[in-house]
Amino acid sequence: MTSSERDVAMPEIGRRTVLGAAGVAACGVALAGCGGEAESAAPGIKGKEIAKAADVPVGGGKVISRWKIVVTQPTAGVYKAFSAACTHKGCAVASPKEGVMTCPCHGSEFDANDGKCLKGPATAPLAAYQVKVQGDGIIIV
To answer: What's one GO-annotated cellular component (predicted)?
Structure first.
């Protein structure tokens, strides 16, 4: 080591700095797949009946707590399903009223027809799931 190399102060990298950087990197990777439409159903529910069609009112909907999904029927015979987790902080949205699903934690609002964010603080839409009616049940496809 030369005398000029000894005179340069090298910053020490502590354990917390390394762990913090690793945590930020891991969070970035985990969040990269979030938001928008769900390409496939949540694990374990594809092909399962998540609700009875008769239990989902026209112009309203029902939160299915077991799978954290909200099923809506914006117009007669048209069923939609979305993640019930608000895209702001993950609180469960309430069943829709007057075509709007509201998050009780911070007041974000989502359209019951397409899951789009209508009012913040959330900015991203709810993840949408494909559904079909089979017999009297609503099935995630």
So the answer is: membrane
Residue 109: φ, ψ to 5°: -125, 145
Average pLDDT over residues 56-79: 93
68-111 per-position pLDDT tens digit: 999 999 999 999 999 999 999 989 999 999 999 999 999 999 99
Q: For residue 83, what is the domain's CATH number? A: 2.102.10.10
Residue 121 inside a domain? The answer is yes
| DSSP H helices in the chain | 3-7, 15-31
For the stretch 54-62, contacts whose Cβ atoms lie closer than 8 Å and that sit 24 or more positions apart, written own/partner, are: 54/136, 56/138, 59/96, 59/98, 59/99, 60/95, 60/96, 60/97, 60/112, 61/95, 61/96, 61/101, 61/112, 62/95
